[in-house]
Amino acid sequence: RGHTVVWQNQLPSWVSSLPLNQVQQAMESHITTEASHYKGQVYAWDVVNEPFNGDGSFVSDVFYRAMGSGYIADALRTAHAADPGAQLSLNDYN
């Protein structure tokens, strides 16, 4: 199982410095690179990790600020395109 591809707590510092209009491309590129590299070797991916606060609201991370709540669906679509045979999930602790 691949854990995790998109998580605000494990980002290179340069991602947070990107202009918001470049965040989506950087996220999609990272997902495509990871999922393509391990295609057929990883049966499932935790694509997005911990996107919600304890009260159910979205974490206001760089992805949410750049793309709104749609970043989750975009991340899942991108992962599916890169590795259509893998199971995909959103992982959260609550």
TrEMBL record:
Keywords linked to the UniProt accession: Carbohydrate metabolism, Glycosidase, Hydrolase, Polysaccharide degradation, Signal, Xylan degradation
Limits of the GH10 domain: 1-94
SUPFAM superfamilies, alphabetized: (Trans)glycosidases
One GO-annotated biological process of the protein: xylan catabolic process
Enzyme Commission (EC) number: 3.2.1.8
Top EC group: hydrolase
Catalyzed reactions per annotation: Endohydrolysis of (1->4)-beta-D-xylosidic linkages in xylans
InterPro entries linked: GH (IPR017853), GH10 (IPR044846), GH10_dom (IPR001000)
Gene Ontology MF annotations: endo-1,4-beta-xylanase activity
Family as reported in the entry's similarity comment: Belongs to the glycosyl hydrolase 10 (cellulase F) family.
Protein name: endo-1,4-beta-xylanase
Annotated source species: uncultured organism
